[in-house]
Amino acid sequence: MKALDALGEAKQLDKVVGPLQKAVRAVPLGPWRAVLQGRPIGHPLHPVLVQVPIGSWSSAAVLDLVPGAGRQARLLVGLGVVSAVPAAWAGWVDWAEQPERQLRTGVVHALSNGVAIGLYTGSWVVRGRGRPVLGRVLGFAGLTAASVGGMIGGHLAFRQAVGSNKTEPVDHLVAPGWHALGSATEFAEGSPERRMLGEVALLVVRGADGFHVLVDRCSHMAGPLSEGTVADGCVECPWHGSVFRLADGENVGGPATAPQPVFETRLTDHGVLEVRLPGAV
Q1: What is the pLDDT along the chain (281 residues), one digit of tens a residue?
Q2: Could you please report the per-residue DSSP string of 170-196?
Q3: Measured distance CA(266)–CA(279) in Å, rounded
Q4: Is the dihedral of CA 166, 51, 88, 160 positive or negative?
Q5: Last residue of a domain, one of 134, 159, 184
Q6: Which residues contact 102 (CB under 8 A, 6 or more apart)?
């Protein structure tokens, strides 16, 4: 555990991380960037795509222990190599929008998986040239590298919270019912305002059509939306550029894959703004 934590503090990796991050962000992926980020399915796509290469390579390792199954093993090795390409692209797109510690850990994760892809590519080639023993050796070496990469990936996901929805706990932090945020006269029209509801920071925007109240911390990496830009009925996170619709919290741009929780609003007879979170427990 300490060794994995140390990856995030290895500042010497920044010499590699900086140029790589700029290069990945500069790739003109167009609408495919959102697909690779997983916005259409509501969570990162990378964990879904890695199932194919890992499953193929694991199955190939089993077949390598079965006499006469060399041809089938080679087929699975090749399938794993080909399917690793889109999985890697999805991983790089996610990686480029992370903070410093996650960037450092992620580049080592990518290196391990890159070694695995290289070993398996070599395994596929030498198997085709009639050298099955060397092919199996390279295959098992590739599986080892992929397993190391998977362990680091688990650290990224569960220890460093890459890809998780940062707003998920809100339902348990806000009590059910209506809560006063202040007088309606305190909020200037079109200006993002930050208010606290217990432990939860809220974004309040007064528009021509009424009040919009969302959780202030961005679902992507907990950036402060109240410090972002409000335009065209949306708010843009100042950290990584995720864009959320004020009306319903839907994520319509940027790396965020989960929408922002939205509060219901009402004004009392005395002009006090009150909010309620549907589903609060």
Answers
A1: 789 999 999 999 999 999 999 999 999 999 999 999 999 999 999 999 999 999 999 999 999 999 999 999 999 999 999 999 999 999 999 999 999 999 999 999 999 999 999 999 999 999 999 999 999 999 999 999 999 999 999 999 999 999 999 999 999 999 999 999 999 999 999 999 999 999 999 999 999 889 999 999 999 999 999 999 999 999 999 999 999 999 999 999 999 999 999 999 999 999 999 999 998 87
A2: HHHHS-SS-EEEEEGGGS-BT--EEEE
A3: 17
A4: positive
A5: 159
A6: 8, 95, 156, 160, 162
Neighbours of 177 (CB within 10 A): 9
Q: Is 83 inside any structural domain?
A: yes
Domain annotation covers residue 73: yes
Which range marks the domain in which residue 104 is found? 2-159
User: In the 8-state DSSP scheme, what is residue 224?
Assistant: B
Q: Is the dihedral of CA 159, 162, 166, 171 positive or negative?
A: negative
Q: Is 33 within a domain?
A: yes
pTM summary value: 0.90
Q: Which amino acid is at 274?
A: E
Distance of alpha carbon 55 from alpha carbon 238, whole angstroms: 39
